[in-house]
Amino acid sequence: MEENKMGIMEMKKLILTMSFPIMISMLIQALYNIVDSMFVARVSQDALAAVSLCYPIQMIIIAVACGTGVGINALLSRFLGEKHFDKANNVAIHGIILSIVNWLIFVIIGLFFSRQFLTLFSQDETIISMGVSYMQICTIFSFGVFIQITYERIMQSTGNTIYNMIIQGIGAIINIILDPIFIFGYFGLPAMGVTGAAIATVIGQIIGMLVGVVITQVKIKEVDLSLKHWHIDFSLIKKIYAIAFPAILMQSIMSFMTVFMNMILASFSEIAVSVFSVYFKLQQFVFMAVLGMTNALVPIVAYNYGANKPDRIKQAIKFSLIISIIIMIIGTIVFQLFPEQLLYLFDAKENMLEIGIPALKIISLSFVFAGISVVLCSIFQALAKAVDSLIITLLRQLILLVPLTAFMAYSYGLNYAWWAFVITEVICMLLSFVFLIKINKQVIVKM
């Protein structure tokens, strides 16, 4: 088989061509999540509350699916780089089997623990009833998202990222079209409210999954997903989750961080909590470009690691850091110049503007440092140093950020709390460079 483009294409062109489709697909995902909430909010505030309470479970589903996908992605790309095609095929098939196992775990959670989970946050029977319906549908039919993400990562591992954009785009568009139809009952259908929103979501995911299966079978020639010679390999599963488990934790951390931050900010005012929520939604549109690039970067670096091409790894690191810094500088400028306009998108009143404008201006000063850490963490994952990546992420989003925010807020006031983001990101960026120097000596130089 001829050399994969990840081993020969000019590095700048490779990163840009592989990153752009993923960035677009992540933009689509972010947009339809917001649209989803807008439709549900038109039903009632209770409906929005019910869906919001289920959101952490949805985040954990995505974390498990994407984290497992990182392990599959890195290992599969490495074996392709080493020209061990049988091993690469085995990784891909194990990935699909693992996605089914993960789905079954969440089926059990949805069937037997939905009500118990929701009663932790609310005693309102209306909210709980709607939440149980939404959560059970999203978990019982979550095979769509698990298998879809697995197929996306298989495609990424072979350098084909344009198909990710197609899969996610189709799923998201179908969800957006079906949302109002099922929620409000158009075309003769009954109005199903929150239940309709859940049904629209899982239909979009299942259709996205089916498109992914077809594209992989027809277009992806580097991987053979035949079960003819397959047998379960627990040592391979262990290798996948040695990379995947830290990635799962990293993606789950954000939901825990949000809970703790809300607890701190709620002691000042509900407006402070709303400001943080608004910031969280807005920053996704800045970070998604860098995250899209890092999704492409993992298979690129892992492939060249397997192919024993240290110079290409160094080129990838240098160019991705430059692109990340440029993107984050643009994001910082937007937040510095237009904080008021950004807050108006969420119908901000005077009391929210008073807290929100300084918050957006201060937090955005951390963007460049955060972007560097995010890129380096993906490099660590690709070079089988997932623990280093986990350490940085834990510090950035939990261990350092949360207590520092509490200290700054309670000691100096709410406006000083936002400086915790800047301090945290500077420290984590410096530590990331220390880890990079260590990994360069231990891994790259010795290749």
Structural write-up:
With 447 residues, this protein is mostly helical. It has 2 domains: 214 residues, no CATH class; 194 residues, no CATH class. Helices cover 84% and strands 0% of the residues. It has 18 helices and no strands. The mean pLDDT is 85.
Strand content: under 5%
Secondary structural class: mainly alpha
Work out the number of β strands: 0
What Rg do the Cα atoms give?
A: 22 Å
User: What level of helicity do the residues show?
Assistant: over 70%
The count of domains is 2
Sequence-ordered SSE layout with sheet pairings:
Blueprint lengths: L4 H4 L2 H31 L3 H37 L3 H34 L6 H16 L2 H15 L4 H23 L8 H27 L14 H33 L3 H37 L3 H28 L1 H6 L5 H14 L3 H16 L3 H14 L1 H12 L1 H4 L1 H26 L3
List keywords for this structure.
2 domains, 447 residues, 18 helices, mainly alpha, 84% helix, 0% strand
